[in-house]
Amino acid sequence: MMLFTAFGWYSQDWVCMHFSQHWFGQSGSTSHPSSFQKRPWRVETSGFGKDLSSESVGDYLAEELFIPKMDRRESVHFLVKRRFMNTQLYQDNFSHMTPAWSRIFNFVADRAEGAYIYTEDGKKLLDFTSGIGVTNTGHCHPKVVEAIRGKAGLFLHAQANIVIHKPMLQLIEELRKIVPPSIDSFYFANSGAEALENAVKIAKAATGRQNIIVFNGSFHGRTHATMALTTSKTGYRTGFGPLPSGIYVSPFPYAFNMHMTEEQASEYALGQLEYLLASQTAPKDTAAILIESVLGEGGYIVPPTSFMKGLREICDKHGIMLIFDEVQSGFGRTGKWFALEHFGVVPDIITCCISF
Ligand SMILES: Cc1ncc(COP(=O)(O)O)c(C=O)c1O
Asked: pTM to 2 decimals?
């Protein structure tokens, strides 16, 4: 479900417009451009909810809030514009920003520091999103900014195929101190999705096998291959098929949803995985089992330790590589450097990104 939330200044009171879209559950960079025309909306003001077709949002605003009748998109912008978006920069350029980026908030941010974002008109907003988990040390921590400035002054780009540069060797040295000792080879890419793309390629190359197993509720990115690895919402893939093949989906041990204890859910999910290996993707065709160490978008669910240990055993038995996606859970976000440390299970490949 996509939430489109706009805060507007209306009659000296904050009016919270809460629009949720039921069929195109999607936020982020691959929103389907046509979604702006098609989606149904839910509008909530002062706690009262109402489901509306996209055409009738303008009518609703006109009737209930006495706002001059506008089309749906204009009316959303009207509310936020009144408070935040009356600058020339916004007016000249916002309509040229691709609608493929859905937006949760529409204020124009000037800068950020620590836990706060400052808007162009000087409003100070407490940021609960941390760049979707990116700014672990807050916005613009002086030490982080200083480190980036320092490195930018040494190299802007020195392609690793051509130049062995000192900062990369130093980074490897630092990483080797915090990863399990068997993780002894490092590859640097540009995003989480690119890390996942490469993890899958490495597993295929190392095993000579072609299939990958993922779990229900997974999120691994928005590129073509990672879209195929992602099962948290149809919104990520709707309209973009056919997707890369050879990807099989097994149940995640989501005990609460399954009405089971954690141990029952673990046993059930491991059984289903064995069944998948017996019925759809033979071990000799299976290159890797890929799982988020903490299921993120699929519900923020910690898998039972017995399940993670069970995955390791199945992988060892069949020569399948185990990949832990720590793009969201890594780098201190679970209280340890990596979430995998809570399970005492070491995968063959770890993908990291967000707050790296
Ligand atoms: C678990 C997980 N894997 C992969 C990705 C993709 O990372 P990126 O958005 O940097 O491509 C994300 C992004 O949030 C993620 O949470």
From this structure: 0.78
